[in-house]
Amino acid sequence: MRGWTAPLVILAISVFLIIRADVFKRYLPYLAATGLLLVSILLINTFLYPGATDVLFTLGPFSATGTGLVAASQAALRVLAFATSVALFALTTRTDELVDDLERRGLGRRAAFILTTAIGTVPRLAERAREIVEAQRSRGLNTEGGIRARVRGVLPVAGPLVLSALTEVEHRAMALEARAFVAPGKRTVLRAYPDSLAQRTLRWGLVVLTLLLLAFAFSGNLLWLP
Amino acid sequence: MTLSMAAVTYKYAGSTSEALRGVNLAVEPGRIIGLVGPNGAGKSTLCLCAVGLAPGVIGGQLTGAVKIDGLDTAKTSEHQLSQHAGILFQESQTQITSGTPSVWEEIAFGPRNLSLSRDEVIERTWNAVDALGLNDIVGRDPNRLSGGQAQLVALAAVLALGPKYLVLDEPTSQLDPLGTRLVGDTLARAAKETGVGVLIAEHKTDLLARMCDEIAVINAGAIVSRGSPDTVLADPSLRDWGVAPPAEVALRQSVVAAGLTWRGEWP
Known about the structure:
The structure holds two protein chains of two kinds.
Chain A: H1 5-20, H2 24-48, E1 55-59, E2 62-65, H3 66-92, H4 95-104, H5 109-138, H6 147-178, H7 197-218
Antiparallel strand pairs in A: 1-2
Chain B: E1 3-11, E2 20-27, E3 32-36, H1 43-50, H2 53-56, E4 61-68, E5 71-72, H3 78-81, E6 85-88, H4 103-113, H5 118-131, H6 147-160, E7 165-169, H7 177-194, E8 197-201, H8 205-211, E9 214-219, E10 222-227, H9 229-232, H10 237-240, H11 247-257
Parallel strand pairs in B: 3-8, 3-9, 6-7, 7-8
Antiparallel strand pairs in B: 1-2, 1-4, 4-5, 9-10
């Protein structure tokens, strides 16, 4: 059955690079975060694959099928390969360095700013939510305990959180204006990152390889791969 | 060449009341003007109007004229104005752009926007870092600073833009006495050595008495008194306007109120 080669190759390369970059321990939380999704893919496809009749075993009203198991494994492998390559990127690339380099290559200042701030927004909102919860607790609002108490505590937090975020947007907009953010011209680039001939060759080689693989795939020349 | 406000009246968008009423004020190069007044008097609004952010960015309705070195703020783009007049807001945390990985790059953010040469950006940034003694924290995440540190970083970021005028809205509100003195000395030095004109809104009248050439008192959106620090900060009406006089003036007033004679020197 076809469909194994690509995700297996991508997974193997990604894991190899993760180990080489010495970030395997930091990769494990990414793996754990993907775990729930992988388990659900495996269970749903194995037991509920439409039209499959090759039953392997039965659990109550559900039957696991051979076709479902293969489809489930392939789908899970694809998700794992994707998640691992994303983890490799996140663990080995600093956002500010990436954006700096993209800016040097012509990325606009607005796009660069959005890229860098979007990543920092979530922790800042979480911090603000924590401050609001603490302020409300100090005034007697019960936000701990059972699920009902927690659900009741969500609304009083959501309102101030959204409103304060909107107010902050105005303040930040003024701060950006006051610091010449909308000035015309290209921003000064402070750092230049090394880009060796080997790196450039590999980068362009990968682009060419991707195009070749796409061409082969669409012309039916990769059907021999498992 | 001045930063001048002539008969300025301002209403926030959606408001029917005037936040500023007929304000006349001028900041000349090399001079430091202190602005005092109670909470809600209009100090922050005046600061926003002085650099064109109000109504330029936040909207509202302004009558009268605000000019920075002859440029009418109503007709000049904000990025042009930012090279003439820098502003430090009361809320230090929201001045951190959040798009920079270190304090150093946060300070370099403004000069980079001006498309200056790489060497000039670096020189301006280090000058601002040195001026405010931030060398120990240049590598830190700007989003993880204390309020006082963020205030100093925000001030350094404004100084790095190299404006001819600085408008500062309570720049020492979160600073300890040492930080307050540092800011005062830095501003006084900037005014003296580089000829920058400073408008500083503050509650700390001790600081203003030490560094200002002139003090203006604002109350309910209007300038109610202005003159030399010695005169304005010793005015008994200051307390009626909700402003605490400097410690020395308060002591003198207490001595006189107790029927004793003030000799003008410490025992």
